[in-house]
Amino acid sequence: MVDYKTFRWFLQVLGCEEAFDRAFYQYNDYTVFDEALWEAGDAEYIFAHAFDWNTTPEGREYWLVIDRIWNIKVIKHSYGNN
Asked: What does the alpha-carbon distance between residue 61 and residue 28 come to, in Å, rounded to a whole number?
């Protein structure tokens, strides 16, 4: 499984960390997104279930592209090709 630090790095590299955090906190009742919450979830599906893509200023297509890139990262990590 991809770890939390890699996920945060991924968001930073793509320039979407702030947008992700904003959308996540607006959509969920959580006040913090940290390693404990990460460990309780499923890395492969984090984008698909973190918030409703359609209700963000970035829109569904923006998050769909990031989700696809994330899934490639997870698959590569799973097969030892980071």
From this structure: 21
Pick from 61, 43, 41: nearest CA to 6 = 43
Q: How far apart are CA 46 and CA 43, in angstroms?
A: 5
Q: What are the structural domain ranges in the chain? A: 4-78
Tens digit of each residue's pLDDT, the chain (82 residues): 678 898 899 999 999 999 999 999 998 887 778 887 787 776 666 767 889 999 999 999 999 999 999 888 877 776 776 5
pTM: 0.81
Pick the closest to residue 66 from 1, 15, 6 (CA basis).
15
CA distances from 63 to 3, 25, 39, 47, 81 (A): 20, 16, 22, 8, 24
